[in-house]
Design brief:
Number of strands: 9
Order of helices and strands: HEEEEEEEEE
Strand order of the largest sheet: 4-5-1-7-8
Helix content: under 10%
Shape: globular
Largest sheet: 5 strands, antiparallel
Number of helices: 1
């Protein structure tokens, strides 16, 4: 729900005054711009140990959810251990590479018979008129250990 709401607001920010939003509850319309927003989603019930490494090598993850650089990590929980959506956002991004890593140790269950895919959606200038979006799909089948999925240059 949170992802859908954030992306609805991004569309509204990009196309100001082009939609009739009178039927949308005004409490749901909040334009919260950030320089960089990265989301990860998986076809598995969970993604293990998602890490966003900032240009100065600061880790932003489930342990260190807020960094001194302004990075913020959140993940979507539900009641049955599932957290298959993770998000990183930073209001004022610093120049350099933002790296994304996950643990690929899912070979211990029956679910390992199904290839694991991770979708990374990168938004630059999120909720701003000049927003850019890039979508990448990663196949983690035959991967084991800590896997660096991507790096985003800012």
């Amino acid at each position: 729900k949170g992802n859908a709401l954030a992306e609805m607001n991004a569309i509204l920010a990009m196309h100001k005054n082009k939609f009739d939003i009178s039927y949308i509850n005004h409490n749901l319309v909040k334009i919260l711009p950030v320089d960089l927003r990265i989301t990860l989603e998986s076809n598995y019930d969970y993604i293990s140990n998602v890490q966003f490494i900032e240009p100065d090598k600061t880790k932003c993850d489930h342990i260190n959810q807020n960094t001194v650089n302004g990075g913020r990590y959140t993940r979507n929980y539900n009641y049955s251990y599932n957290y298959n959506v993770s998000e990183y956002a930073v209001k004022h991004a610093t120049q350099g590479k933002y790296r994304i890593k996950v643990d690929a140790y899912n070979n211990y269950s029956h679910a390992s018979q199904i290839p694991m895919y991770v979708r990374v959606v990168t938004f630059k200038n999120f909720n701003k008129e000049n927003m850019e979006m890039e979508i990448k799909i990663f196949d983690l089948d035959n991967q084991y250990g800590v896997v660096e999925l991507d790096d985003v240059k800012w």
